[in-house]
Amino acid sequence: MSAYKPKFKFKACRICKRKRKYLNKFDICKSCENCMSENCMRCDQKRKPVDYLNELPICNSCCEQLEQIIPDGFEPNFKFEECKRCKVQQDYLNEILLCNSCCKKLERRAPNGYQPNLKFEQCRRCNIQQDYLNEFLICNSCCQQLTQMIPAGFRPNFKFEKCKGRCNQPKDYLNEFKECNLCERCKRCYFRRKNYYLSWIYNSCSHCFFELFIKISFICFIIVILIFYYVQILKIIMIDYF
Predict the structure, then answer these.
(1) What are the tens digits of pLDDT across the range 61-79?
(2) CA 162 from chain center: how many Å?
(3) C-alpha dihedral (14, 19, 25, 28), degrees to nearest 10
(4) Are 28 and 39 in contact (CB under 8 A)?
């Protein structure tokens, strides 16, 4: 009897890279085949061993369907990402992750002065992601609300600048001095508009400033009279003394 034994070549599994006694025709061991028996992410059916040659978690039939009819400018969604607009997993997405139906809706007719919100930014006023924004990143509905009822002497704050008054907050309307409706009121009566030309003296309206000026003038007049009488009394006392 020969002292030599038959030499067997044990191939390594294509998945786990370990040498196994038994491999299938795709060079996959039984344990790896059981672990990889997951469902296709598109049709939710169990994948066959032949599908493991594809690195994507989808079956071959779904791959063939995705590659049949591809719209212009779109690519098959092999990563199964959601559309950024409708938040639905679609078969085809473009370079900015938009599906075909959402692109058609955005390209129909944009309002005058507005552009499609392809960056998916939020409106600076309502903080909601809208389809169309203007140059100030404001949606159409917010612009209509701002231009409906404008207080007298105010302008819509499309740039959302902060009020330069006491509140220091972005407001819908600002006057020519960049102050809101509440901050422009008189600090004394809180009813009339303050006089900005007298604001370096006191933040009050002309009426309150005039009343304050009369009171201060009257007090000064009384003080002057008292000083005058005090000086006269001192003169009389000094004359009597000497």
Answers:
(1) 777 766 666 777 778 777 7
(2) 17
(3) -40
(4) no
